[in-house]
Protein 1
Amino acid sequence: MPKEVTDLAEFKELINGDKVIAVDFTAVWCGPCKRIGPKFEEFSKEYPNATFIKVDVDAAEEIAAAYKIQAMPTFKFFKGGEMIGEMVGADESKLKALCESHCK
């Protein structure tokens, strides 16, 4: 199950590590987020080499602002502090493709 992160310092510590971090920027009121959220959780089990986390943009406004989140859901993939992939929207096949290319 993806961990919920609300603290900017913890978020930065996670994404600066050697492991791929897949981030779901979400909101409780967001319909598309509710549809794709369970898939993100499934992928977290399918790709154990990556760490999957969720950031609720309302509970973690500082993180959302720092990473310029404009729409939900937004998925970002990081490794060693660098963003290596990004997707906006709830397209399951595109999210799966990002996981395939970055999380194996």
Protein 2
Amino acid sequence: MRAGEQVLDPKVTGVVVSQWRAWAAGRSTPEPSGGGGLALAVASLTQREREVLIAVARGGSNPAVADQLGVGEATVKAHVHALLRKLGCTTRTQLVVTAYESGLITVGH
């Protein structure tokens, strides 16, 4: 797999999120950077960061997101890096879960 390629088929994302929630139910998770919880962290995102987060959560690779939003791939990578930092995530999969848990996207939409 090359960097930026889609890792999960969008059709299985709902299953992954359900399993992640079940696994995380008994675990303590750190607050996103800056404190204030998930809602505050997501509310602090720029409109473009929200667009990138939604596109990534729907399974978009960096090149696909760049194409969809009309920006360069390096710009998408910069936004993904900012999202990881702002939301306290370490992987793209965690970004997907965050998008679902915050209500930015729902299964099937």
